[in-house]
Design goal:
10% strand, two-stranded antiparallel sheet, 8-stranded parallel β-barrel, globular, single chain, 15 helices, 545 residues, TIM Barrel, 10 strands, alpha/beta
Length: 545
Amino acid sequence: MTLTLRSSISFIIQKETKFLKTFDDVSATVTFAKIKPSFRLKAKSSMQVEHTLNSEGTINEKWEKLHAPSIVHSNHDNSKRVPVFVMLPLDTVTMGGNLNKPRAMSASLMALKSAGVEGVMVDVWWGLVEKDGPLKYNWEAYAELVQMVQMHGLKLQVVMSFHQCGGNVGDSCSVPLPPWVMEEISKNPDIVYTDRSGRRNPEYISLGCDSVPVLRGRTPIQVYADYMRSFRDRFRDYLGTVISEIQVGMGPCGELRYPSYPESNGTWRFPGIGEFQCYDKYMKASLAAAAEAIGKKEWGGGGPHDSGQYNQFPEDTGFFRKDGTWNSEYGQFFMGWYSGKLLEHGERILLSAKEIFQSSGVKLSGKIAGIHWHYKSRSHAAELTAGYYNTRHNDGYLPIAKMFANHDVVFNFTCMEMKDREQPDHANCSPEGLVHQVKTATRTARIELAGENALERYDAGGYAQVLSTSMSDSGSGLAAFTYLRMNKKLFEGDNWRHLVDFVRNMSEGGRGQRLPDSDSRGSDIYVGHIKKTKEHKQEAGTVLV
């Protein structure tokens, strides 16, 4: 199957085709090659999670009670529609501040609209918009995109991306923090996260200095608020209509977490436990004050000395091992402080966002990372270093969900496409158990849960797992799903067919409907939309060549 819209520019790939002089040169048909009938997505009525075995080979009933999903036999609300969004490329706006390949983008949006997609998501990079200096904003490329999205009848989810792009899973380009911010970092390296060995991470400003005027007289929270306020003023006429959601970035990759597992320069590799990021002077001062406040001054000198290194396993360390100090009085103090600081950071940013966007008609959302490796261990080491105080004995996601609920923020979560059996045994993974726990937390907090896939997936199995997750489990289905990510491969052969089927299934409540035979045996399904667009003299682009 090939999906083609002829144009002057080839989307995603580097080499551009030669320019067409007029819109009349654009093909007015889109055809599918004859292929076998589309697959039927099958979604299970309940999630299945393997029992966790302890070192003696017996089922650990405590783990199963706290974290393992039970079999639920409920009547799913099949009429509930789950809108699907698609993430745009990370380099949708270039370092020069221009919309990247606008004709190709327009054609791709056209195809997505015809497939039934609700809208798209885009990162609005701090490093691009405010790069010319403090309070000097350039929104023009994003304004062009918003107008293009509106023209195609789509919605737009906007990510306030206060982090750098580059150095993490899936990062295909580099967008550092604004140059003037990097200058301040060079003068005062403690304003970025630091690990025990002194390694600085410029992905995101340390939450330790949230309330300190380290950015040319403004605090980081003030800088983020000014940025969001400028965005609101520039796009006021589109908020609540074209722009339906603002996802508020609160950490690396836009997620509320510490940068505990950085991939840059080979620092971390899956499934390493990561490292605590609490060694800049601001975090150290906060820890010292917290320890002194409870009469344990000796606990305030730094993070755990026996928590290991990025690529170790829990049992290699004194802190995270089965009966380690994570569960001691000291461990509980430290993790309470470390996770509490993260919650306070999220609270500060969301308070600003709520005040700025109230009455605008947009939803606010926050993103939480799906750290599923070592989930079956007692300490949940990888989650702890990221700031999620989630262990065999403590629920780390309910406090986050309750904090989000206080500000009417949608809880956006990743790894919705993953199955336990697909993960390597040695990594002690349970993405299904983790998703179930998060669904329970959001249901308890009475907030909406939205989802994303953590890694690129084009296969029917990945889509079927998302369908299973999206189905209501005692009222905890998905409010929306955002697919990662639009690129050349998405429009190829069966990949496109799977996406179209998936979008249709999600729109019908996950009932596993297949596309009509006419769609599988060659049709001009998009012709009407293209002709209508042609009448409006819209420029078009190549989706796949």
